Write the structure tokens for this entry.
Amino acid sequence: MQQTFQQNRQRSKRLRDFVSGQPDNTGGPLPEQTPDTERAAHELAEKVRAEFFATLAEAPKGADGILAKRTEDWTEKEVETLTGSDQAMLAGHPEFERTNDRLTEWHKLFYGTGPAETDATGRMVPPSYKVPPRPNETAARDPRGRSAQQGVMGVGRQVARMAEKEHWSGAVDSLQSGINLLNTAAPAGRTPDLQNLKRDGEFGPKTKGALFRSVARLGPDSVGEAVGLARFKDHVAKARLGEIKPTGSLAQAADEAFSPLLLPTGKFDENDRRPKPWGYGIQSMLNDMGKDKDSDWQAIKEDGWIGPKTELAFQSLLPQVEDDDLVGTLYHHLGFIG
């Protein structure tokens, strides 16, 4: 299923790029342009979407699946499986230390932390449980006790809405970037505690495992928020490099980053002047950072509409701040991640 999804995703992107006139960099011949090309692209995109959700519906197996669960929910059999895994056995594995810390935590929870017991002759006796572990395996849960699987599907719907606005590679790249952002930007104790993912736009086993574990540790809301913020951070980087038009792009970038999460609005409408939830946050962030960086900063109206004045304020502030600082401040003004 995973391989089929990847193959069809690549075909879908090439068809969509062909229909929209985008250059093709994947190699190989493009389909001959016909009146049916757009319909074929749409049908293949729907197939990719179905395969993506079918892949999400299968929880990770083995160590990845166990590590997505709370330590106190592990069964004795799961501990045995994890103890023999690469994560626990290979000292060079990026998750070696964290995995063994959790195994130690499990043993302390159920065997206690007291000294080893001895018999009448002074010989040590096999340890016994102070508290019995779970007899049967359970599904991964998020911090509020909800099904992590359901939360993963929710984040998946957000990714799918992003893919509708561009293509699957870009949407999956935003997912990978968002999970990485949680590792570096979330408050202490609120990170997924994972190895950073390679941003390649491929929804492979590592990305799937990281998504499940992030949702289980932090909840789907925090993961979804990070995906939107990571997408917005990409816009900031492009604006700094001059890769996008200087005006009129901020509103669209914010809409594409946050509407799939907060207020699914369909296609961006540049004539829509209604206030948006993310508009208030961006304007508040600009005023907050602007007054700290510039004593002559002229505060903009915080009305939720990202218009020319908000765009101008963004362009004015950009040379004075780092990308991480800007996005980090936006976290707080949007009320995201803890």
In short: Residues 220-241 form the longest helix (22 residues). Residues 19 and 38 are 6 Å apart (CA to CA).
